[in-house]
Amino acid sequence: MLHILRYWASKGVDGFRCDMVFMVPEEFWHWVIPQVKQDYPDVIFIGEIYDVNLYRTFLDYCHFDYLYDKVNLYDTLVGIEKHNVSAAQLTGCWQCVDGIGDKMLNFLENHDEVRFASREYAEDPSKVIPSLVVSAMISKGPFMIYYGQELGEMAHDNEGFAGDNNRSTIFDYWSYDTLRRWYDNGRCSALKLTRHERWLRKLYKNVLTMCNARRAFREGCFFDLMYVNLRNSGFNPHRQYAFLRYTESEALLVVANFDDNNIDLSLSIPQLAIDMAGLASGKQCAKDLLWGRELSFEVGADVQTALSVKGHDAVIVPLKKRGNNAIE
Does the global pTM surpass 0.90? Predict the structure, then answer.
């Protein structure tokens, strides 16, 4: 196996996604990954593992760079979308991986799981916004896009061996209409995409660009606002989730709405968060980074921050820092 890994690394393969790593002796990974990295130090190893209790072992002892956070964050987001699980459960997700959250590879689709837009999941690719924002922005860790996800691929083809199972087959020689139209004989353009597909692709581009361009998302700290809003009459913790990301120069408020209905919410931001993020108190105006809407609101430990969020949508709001009247 070491020879095989070195062979592909020598061909320029820069990462390995390792299937069901907990079914292989830990001692093997402990030995083989450093051997490969001795010659190819930039090669990345990503492990698929379904036991949260083993996460730290496979990062520290087995030397994996990242782990798929399937049974923690992904399954919780599925539960919120499909089974009326409370959005407040997302707090437990980051607490479960506290200290190693940046080593979690977050995702909403892969070859094992049903497509988000499929009839077995959300049925509508437009509903992805709250799950996308939370999964991509809750930590500094990587976020994976599965091919065609950004076009709303629904996986409703009957693909031969794989059949019609709401997944994109890995067993059949197959292609998908969404991808064929985007690829367009090598042009890789949006010319043959529908209006909705172009809108969705632009959404994904905006979110991913924001995650890399904004220091608060790329490098910043995280503050969960749920604990002070669990009994807030102006906020539904079962269908909304709110958190801050911040650096010494930037602070961003993220509110995701998993409900189908538009909401006018009132959010509590505690003094602890204001102090840690260095927030300015008082009335503020800012532009929602997701949609460009102008927002007016107030920040302070003794006031409620009032925001409007559409159904299955989110807002990403820059907040003023103390001693800085400008918002980045």
Answer: yes
